[in-house]
């Protein structure tokens, strides 16, 4: 159980800056697709192994480690995609909800 907790947080600590740099230098959409595919394949190994017999705990830890590592790269790519989808120029300017000025007499 403690190994699962460790492999969930460790990829962010170790690979967070690396994933950000990779996401900045390559195609973010392709990186996101590759990371999601890696996650799907890693997690699909668990039920596939269950079909063959008892699932070894090391396989579960390895699958979670691969899935969380891929998620770090997917998350870094996702952060870069949001501004590309909605650039600041296309966003409406925020309006204050309350004004301290008195209404004009016009």
Can you describe what's shown?
- By secondary structure, the chain is mainly alpha-helical.
- Helices cover 74% and strands 0% of the residues.
- It is built from three helices and no strands.
- The chain has helices spanning 2-25, 28-52, 57-85.
- α1 runs parallel beside α3 and α2 runs antiparallel to α3 (57-85).
- The chain starts with a helix and ends in a 21-residue tail after the last helix.
- The model has no long low-confidence stretch (mean pLDDT 85).
SSE layout:
Elements: H1 2-25, H2 28-52, H3 57-85
Helix pairs in contact: 1-3, 2-3
Any descriptors?
106 residues; mainly alpha
- Overall, the morphology is elongated
What proportion of the residues form beta strands (DSSP E)? under 5%
Give a count of the beta strands, DSSP E runs of length 2 or more. 0
Order of helices and strands: HHH
Q: Number of DSSP helices?
A: 3
Whole-number mean pLDDT: 85
Instruction: Report, as a whole number of angstroms, the end-to-end distance.
Output: 69 Å
Which stretches of 5+ consecutive residues score pLDDT under 50?
none
Rounded Rg? 22 Å
Question: Portion of residues in helices?
Answer: over 70%
Largest sheet: none
Class from secondary-structure proportions: mainly alpha
In short:
The protein has helices at residues 2-25, 28-52, 57-85. The chain is mostly helical and 106 residues long. The longest helix is centred in the last third of the chain and has 29 residues, at 57-85.
């Amino acid at each position: 159980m403690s190994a699962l907790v460790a492999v969930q947080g460790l990829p962010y600590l170790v690979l967070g800056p690396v994933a950000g740099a990779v996401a900045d230098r390559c195609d973010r959409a392709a990186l996101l697709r590759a990371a999601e595919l890696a996650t799907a394949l890693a997690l699909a190994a668990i039920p596939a192994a269950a079909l063959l017999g008892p699932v070894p705990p090391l396989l579960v830890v390895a699958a979670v480690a691969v899935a969380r590592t891929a998620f770090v790269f997917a998350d870094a790519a996702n952060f870069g995609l949001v501004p590309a989808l909605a650039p600041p120029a296309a966003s409406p300017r925020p309006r204050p909800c309350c004004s301290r000025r008195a209404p004009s007499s016009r």
